[in-house]
UniProtKB/TrEMBL annotation:
The active site is at residue 249. The keyword Membrane does not apply. This is Aldehyde dehydrogenase. InterPro entries: Ald_DH/histidinol_DH (IPR016161), Ald_DH_C (IPR016163), Ald_DH_CS_CYS (IPR016160), Ald_DH_CS_GLU (IPR029510), Ald_DH_N (IPR016162), Aldehyde_DH_dom (IPR015590). Belongs to the aldehyde dehydrogenase family. Transmembrane segments: none annotated. Pfam families: Aldedh. PANTHER family: 2-AMINOMUCONIC SEMIALDEHYDE DEHYDROGENASE (PTHR43720). Keywords: NAD, Oxidoreductase. Residues 14-476 form the Aldehyde dehydrogenase domain. It comes from Patiriisocius hiemis. Gene3D superfamilies: Aldehyde Dehydrogenase, Chain A, domain 1, Aldehyde Dehydrogenase, Chain A, domain 2.
Length: 487
């Protein structure tokens, strides 16, 4: 059985403990490889390799760093099919999605930050009249930790490590133990691109065994994390008293506000995607749909009709729109919410049942599920389900819509469907979210700040925000003597 090894100091290696975890193919429900379950000794090796590489890497010219990142981007692109296949097998997502979105975005992350670093400039402040000049040095932090989740495995892994190394840091990175395969394959690409050993070290394993030692490491000075809110809180409890820099991208329970004056057909098509793309396992999915009363019944009918056409199936079947959920425990968690919805008086308008996919009888398939709720404070409307489940509910006024939209502990993204510009401006200001999409969804320009408010996290990724996070600003203040003109 294939072994997923650590990648430390430019070399694949086994974990010191010789402990291994099972890696499942969720579309078949079978173990198909085995994952290094690293511990603090492996993290220490990775840290030492990173520390050793740091002086040279942080002094490598921007041009050289940029070229290396772009080479990695090219190699990811050249391996598109192989990586997309590995991602679909490891995660359960449709191969077509991995090929069209996940892997191209992983390549784009390296290309974007390879270019962005050449444009990253620091500020200067002249104190006029005081003969003083201040300028800001933006220096890499040193060794940083990047920890990523299973829903968009290579996409989110590279979203963190690309800006970290572009800015001159060396990295100890841990992908999710649920979907480690493409991060493992990335090691070969890094070597082929010529990334110096130690610049990027990848340790695999569970959060407790391999993740926690990264967070708790005395000399890993910054942690960039994407994952569940409870894990984010755990990480903050360890890292905050150590005064580490923290970027936490956490969960969401995002509202989708649909007004009667929207472009109805566009809204309907995009709402199907924002509900069920990647089996609803994207922190940005619009899992709470609020519809203006005057079009509510029509929307219900049309939405159900469209969702009923989605094909749940084998990720490698070209016709598949909805693949397998990532794991059995996750499937069980999502199912438990469907039960809760029924207990709370919600009505399952569509879906809710396990799907038996021919040839993949042990896979983790669930129908896309639409639940009509009558109380926005019910658990299925408040807690992150992170699966192919959305709730729908009508609203009467703008004030009621905004109150329900903001009435959760999360604040990651919100989607607004309206053609009224005044309403757009008013509501965009009022929505408690890090990202507001108007008449679109998951429309990404990598230069924009990305992150959430409230329990959806702290800090921003993307563009110069990420490069700022991965550098430490230092103000240099110079007092000078003006030469008098004697003529
Ligand atoms: N992007 C998002 O918003 C995501 C949200 N979730 C939510 O979180 C729930 C739990 O999913 P999990 O797979 O358990 O995600 P998680 O938050 O536990 O895992 C994310 C990453 O953190 C690592 N990790 C876990 N505990 C850690 C610790 N104490 N210290 C350092 N690293 C640690 C994991 O190994 C993984 O690499 C999901 O059901 C979903 O609701 C999960 C994944 C992504
Ligand atoms: O950066 C993006 O385009 C998407 C990010 C998505 C997540 O962080 C997530 O689903 O966890």
């Amino acid at each position: 059985m294939q072994k997923i090894l650590n990648y430390i100091n430019g070399t694949y290696c086994e974990p010191k403990s010789n402990e291994w975890l099972d890696n499942y193919n969720p579309s078949e429900g079978e173990i198909y490889s085995t994952i290094a379950n690293s511990n603090e000794k492996d993290v220490e090796d990775a840290y030492m390799a990173a520390k050793k590489a740091f002086p040279a890497w942080s002094n490598t010219t921007i041009e050289t760093r940029s070229k290396l990142l772009i080479k990695i981007a090219d190699l990811i692109e050249a391996n598109l099919d192989r990586l997309a296949e590995a991602e679909a097998k490891d995660n359960g997502k449709p191969f077509s999605l991995a090929k069209a979105v996940d892997i191209p975005r992983a390549s784009a992350n390296f290309r974007f930050f390879g270019n962005a670093i050449t444009q990253f400039a620091s500020e200067s402040h002249e104190s006029i009249g005081l003969n003083t000049m201040n300028y800001t040095l933006r220096q890499p932090i040193g060794v940083v930790g990047c920890i990523s989740p299973w829903n968009l495995p290579l996409y989110l892994f590279t979203w963190k490590i690309a800006p970290a190394i572009a800015a001159g840091n060396c990295v100890v990175a841990k992908p999710s133990e649920v979907t480690p395969m493409t991060a493992y394959l990335l090691g070969k690409i890094l070597t082929e691109a010529g990334l110096p050993p130690g610049v990027l070290n990848i340790v695999h394993g569970s959060g407790a065994s391999a993740g926690q030692p990264i967070v708790a490491h005395q000399d890993i000075k910054a942690i960039s994390f994407t994952g569940g809110t409870a894990t984010g809180a755990d990480i903050a409890r360890t890292a905050a008293p150590m005064f580490k820099k923290l970027s936490l991208e956490l969960g969401g329970k995002n509202p989708n506000l649909i007004f009667a004056d929207c472009d109805y057909e566009k809204m309907l098509a995009v709402t199907v995607k924002s509900s069920f793309a990647n089996q609803g396992q994207i922190c940005l999915c619009g899992s709470r749909i609020f519809v203006e009363q005057s079009i509510y019944e029509q929307f219900k009918k049309d939405f159900i009709a469209k969702v009923s056409k989605l094909k749940v199936g084998n990720p490698f079947d070209e016709a598949t729109n909805v693949g397998a959920l990532v794991s059995k425990p996750h499937l069980e968690k999502v199912q438990s919410y469907i039960k809760i919805a029924e207990e709370e008086g919600g009505e399952i308008l569509f879906g809710g049942k396990i799907v038996n996919v021919e040839g993949c009888e042990n896979g983790y398939y669930l129908e896309p599920t639409i639940i009509e709720v009558n109380d926005d404070k019910c658990r299925v409307n408040q807690e992150e389900i992170f699966g192919p489940v959305v709730t729908i509910m009508p609203f009467n006024t703008e004030a009621e819509a905004i109150e329900m939209a903001n009435g959760v502990k999360y604040g990651l993204s919100a989607t607004l469907w309206t053609t009224n510009l005044n309403r757009t401006m008013r509501l965009s200001k009022k929505l408690e979210a890090g990202i507001v999409w108007v008449n679109t969804w998951l429309n990404r320009d990598l230069r924009t700040p990305f992150g959430g408010v409230k329990d959806s996290g702290v800090g921003r990724e993307g563009g110069f925000e990420a490069l700022k996070f991965f550098t430490e600003p230092k103000n240099v203040c110079i007092s000078y003597t003006e030469v008098q003109n004697k003529s």
